[in-house]
Known about the structure:
- The structure holds two protein chains of two kinds.
- Chain A is an alpha/beta fold.
- Chain A has eight helices and 16 strands.
- Chain B starts with a strand and ends with a helix.
- Classes of the chains: A alpha/beta, B alpha/beta.
- The interface between A and B is large, with 89 and 80 residues.
Amino acid sequence: MAILIIAEHNNQSLKSETLKVVQAATAIGGDITVLVAGFNSTAAATEAAAIAGVTKVLHADNAAYEHQLAENIAALVTELGKGYSHILAAATTTGKNFLPRVAAMLDVAQISDVIAIESADTFVRPIYAGNAIATVKSADAIKVLTVRPAAFGEAKTGNNAPVETLTAVHDAGISRFVTQELTKSERPELTAARVVISGGRGMQNGENFALLNGIADKLGAAIGASRAAVDAGFVPNDMQVGQTGKIVAPELYIAVGISGAIQHLAGMKDSKVIVAINKDAEAPIFQIADYGLVADLFTVLPELEQQL
Amino acid sequence: MKILVPVKRVIDYNVKVRVKADQSGVDLANVKMALNPFCEIAVEEAVRLKEAGNATEIVVVSIGTSTVQEQLRTALALGADRALHIETDQNLDSLQVAKLLAKVVADEQPGLVILGKQAIDSDNNQTGQMLAALTGMGQGTFASKVQLADGKVQVTREIDGGLQTVELPLPAVVSTDLRLNEPRYASLPNIMKAKKKPLDVKAADSFGVSLNSNVTLLKVVPPATRQGGIKVESVAELVDKLKHEAKVI
């Protein structure tokens, strides 16, 4: 078994998702090679070499890979991937972008969003936004998988694997990077946050979402919303947690003024601890909440902020 | 310019899915079906591009049993011009779907392919990228903004932590994210008109593409159910529980 993992990084440093994919790969078993494709990305390659369990790091450093353009990264991975039994990447927007392109060029299926590895050819993945869990077996010569980072722990560090520099450049010459705007928020991203606090229709309007700010600041939380709150125009769509929005699984999820429609539950029910605050004692959210508080959110939120 | 919009029929997003007792899959009998939400956004974007004078014709395509014609009619009512139904009763994986669509691209020669980033049933998020690979096109996935100019398309993509804009020569593949637009509702006159729009049917096995996948579905089970928790009486009790019992803050 030979496993190729495509590292997730921002050229300066490796992202924690890569450590989780390595952890998933150790469950498959075999030699693990990590590919760091980027530009001026030596620091990221050095970090990759320090991950326990990694046999070798391949480092492709060229302007063509700077922005992780799918066309270029996929050409490189397709070329390298032919020598491996498994190709893995994190199920992030980067991995989801280039890896299906690799699978198609290798003429094999991709298994998306793997949450458990049963054996070298059998994998578990959520379907219907996690409302059903499928176990699938692949007979493809090369198994191409994206791995859901939230489902795996981080591999340890403390290794000094050899780093091999790749000189061949795959510039497909199709796509051109124009700009990138990363949200400069003090808050973590919804999908990576340890704590998420979300507001629903019960917030009544967009201004009231400010009531969540202080609590989010104290807990280092990301702020989300239910589809009902988005549809009502309270907050923008990128805050939506749910089947048609973002799927989150934080340590702590606080649902405020959210009734618990199926489509919302699908996006957050894998959270470790769920708190629901709602004045309607019959709201379905209470059926899945670890801690429910039946109360008016406008009294509870300032009190909660104060007591944290 | 012609725009090709592949669409999928899925369980309506408001329906609670039930896993079959024999673990063979999800129960689809007597369940409300709908156009996949991301596909609806794709149709809407194509219609807006046509309304803005950037496109001349919108062709929608769907693969499946004759039931998918219902969703094709929905897309026609939203503003697509004609539809293609690729008929098969086999459940296809993304790669097989992409191979069929690549044949359609070869036949239709669209200037742009717009499709949903993922279907809310299988949640694969693969077809657009695979279609782009098989046709050698560039891909603008998870689009929140699409701008056409000078034979090129600029696609603003929703990436983890922000937005990235890429430029691709046409033809190109664009996959839609939630923020791209808010789909309109089909008006009654448009629903009536859609019934008269052309809808061709072709057998999937007439495309010369192998429809078999190397991936076997072993079982489908419901997710682990959550234990119902407790109700707390006050904010103080809640904070105490989170600190000392759950130990998450």
